[in-house]
Write a structure and sequence with these properties.
mainly beta; about 575 residues; four-stranded antiparallel beta sheet; six-stranded antiparallel beta sheet; Neuraminidase
């Protein structure tokens, strides 16, 4: 596959459309690293947090934040719920001491108790109820996809009184690969789980088998099955109510008995929000260029959510376009694994993993796309502005966790995300609202603590102010891969909570740039030349909820929004060979 030179012009168009200039923004007097519109001010209400992922308020208007604990894999910090008052934080519950496994991501207050999302002892996704005295009651667990780089993320109480939960899918694009090596080592049976019965096309991907001491060992892996398991055309995969890539819903009076999918077929869905009319919207991280089936997606997205709808994962892009469209044929061959059907080699092109007709699935409705974000920006927390926000009332604000390139994708050479954007309802475009004056996190600019790092959650408080949960510093450290960890490190106590308020007579923020055309050619992610690999498939990160966005979490998933570099597989294989030699 070749990237056409003509798409360079398209890249310029996309950057102009998706990343408009902030001519109307100016540095904050107190935090000059941060640009924000005139008529708004920003302050820091808490700092020194470790992996802050979600905020909530109790019935008395007191603010709480959850610290995630680890990120994708086990780490020493314990997940906790803290109260935030007068610039100070007070520990309310040490969740780790109560048997809650990291990462804890979602947090809401409902009927005199907290509800949280987290991993269970078997690393599956779980939801628990936590009282102020520290009593933890697990409502359900067993979401297998959460054993991977993507896990259960946010919770929200709907207008109907039910609780909705976002659940990320295992793996980048439906196939467990080398990028999932640390997760497979801990949970050998992990796989992507559909919400309904599906029929496969039988595409299998050949990779080195990191589980054996012989580096020349190869293995075939198909879609929706554990690593090292081949599939065949027409093979049926049973659906489950505890599925990934979905928004789940349950009645809090009978959680386990009423849990079911509400909408499905999302890639890494991080958060949901309801507008004043009770309509649901979701933030989703698009695909990564990693693993056995890398996808050079064009956008991340926010969606309108329709009950029962399928949003196309793993066969449609974040903009709900089929991955078989030639515009997605832009990943260099050396980054793709060999493909086989019934043992016969296939061209290295993206093909559907699901037989849609046999599975009763129709292509997703593109009108459900509400907003398009720069790819790898990792949309995470979302919230609608209240009426007190004047000309911005009713607009959707989005925390963009940011990328972790080059590990998130070898095809990106500049940062994206690390900001709060808003969706212009007239154009469907994500427009920066608050960001650092220079692209990227503040710590990379020598301004640690003076600007945004990794915004993960955004909410409007009881006082009408906009609050931002800033996850903190995330930085690349490939040496951790040889230790069986993801190739990143997350220094503790670098997170914060920011508060943004309107000043008297705040003027309109100014017109948004012109709307995007209805169809754009596929842009190359960068002109950089990727480094050839010795193994097929390049792991990227995936946003799970509290570590990497998957690069996009994509999230942690936060959890954005997650994944690992190929070095992980090589490192684990080397460790296995050393163990074999010793024993």
């Amino acid at each position: 596959m070749k990237i056409k030179a003509s798409v360079l012009l398209a890249l310029t168009m996309v950057l102009t459309i998706v990343v408009p200039a902030l001519a109307y923004n100016a540095p904050s007097p107190r935090f000059p690293t941060i640009d924000l519109p005139p008529g708004y001010q920003i302050e820091k209400v808490a700092e020194g947090l470790t992996y802050a992922t979600s905020m909530t308020w109790d019935d008395q208007g007191r603010m709480y934040v959850v610290e995630a604990g680890g990120q994708f894999l086990e780490e020493p910090p314990s997940p906790k719920i803290l109260r935030v008052e007068n610039g100070r934080t007070t520990e309310i519950v040490d969740l780790g001491s109560k048997g809650v496994e990291d990462s804890a991501v979602g947090l809401i207050w409902f009927k005199d108790a907290f509800y949280i999302t987290h991993r269970a002892k078997d690393r599956s996704g779980a939801v628990s109820r936590v009282t102020l005295d520290g009593t933890v009651t697990t409502l359900f667990s067993g979401i297998i996809d959460s054993q991977s780089e993507h896990q259960v993320n946010a919770l929200r109480v709907g207008p109907d009184g039910r609780i909705y939960v976002t659940s990320g899918p295992a793996a980048n694009s439906g196939v467990v690969g080398l990028d999932n090596a640390p997760f497979v080592t801990r949970s050998p049976g992990l796989h992507t789980t559909p919400c309904q019965d599906i029929v496969l096309t039988g595409r299998n991907f050949e990779t080195p088998d990191f589980r054996t001491p012989d580096p020349s060992d190869k293995v075939m892996t198909g879609a929706y099955v554990p690593f090292g398991t081949a599939t065949s055309p027409g093979q049926k995969i049973a659906g489950s109510a505890k599925c990934g890539g979905a928004i789940l819903v349950f009645d809090p009076a009978n959680p386990a008995g009423t849990l079911r999918p509400y909408a499905h077929g999302f890639r890494n869905v991080i958060d949901i929000a309801f507008n004043a009319r009770g309509e649901m919207f979701a933030a989703v991280n698009g695909f990564d260029v990693r693993g056995s089936r890398p996808v050079n997606d064009l956008y991340d997205a926010t969606y309108r959510v329709r009950e029962g709808a399928w949003y196309g994962f793993p066969d449609f892009s974040a903009a709900l376009e089929p991955l078989t469209d030639p515009k997605f044929d832009t990943v260099p061959d050396q980054l793709m694994a060999p493909i086989f059907i019934n043992g016969q080699p296939q061209p290295k092109k993206l093909g559907f993993l699901i037989d849609h007709a046999a599975s009763g699935l129709t292509p997703p409705d593109r009108s459900l796309v509400y907003g398009l974000h720069d790819v790898n920006s990792s949309p995470s927390g979302i919230a609608f502005a209240p009426t007190s926000w004047g000309d911005l009332a009713g607009q959707l604000f989005v925390a963009e966790w940011g990328d972790l390139a080059p590990q998130t994708t070898p095809l990106r050479d500049k940062p994206t995300g690390h900001q709060i954007s808003r969706i212009d309802p007239a154009t469907g475009r994500a427009v920066p609202f608050i960001r650092n004056a220079k692209l990227g996190p503040a710590s990379a600019q020598g301004a640690m603590g003076m600007g945004l790092e990794r915004p993960f959650d955004v909410k409007f408080g009881p006082d009408g102010a906009l609050y931002i949960a800033d996850y903190g510093v995330a930085q690349i450290n490939p040496a951790r891969a040889a230790q069986g960890q993801v190739p990143y490190e997350f220094p503790p106590k670098t997170g914060a909570i920011w508060k943004v308020t309107r000043t008297t007579g705040a003027p309109p923020v100014g017109p948004a740039p012109p709307p995007a055309p209805s169809a754009l050619p596929a842009p190359p992610a960068t002109t950089a030349t990727p480094t050839p690999l010795t193994m097929p498939g390049l792991p990227n990160t995936g946003a799970g909820a509290a570590a990497m966005p998957e690069s996009r979490s994509r999230a942690l998933s936060p959890f954005l929004v997650a994944g690992v570099v190929l070095l992980v597989g090589a490192g684990l294989a080397a460790r296995q060979r050393r163990r074999t030699t010793r024993h």
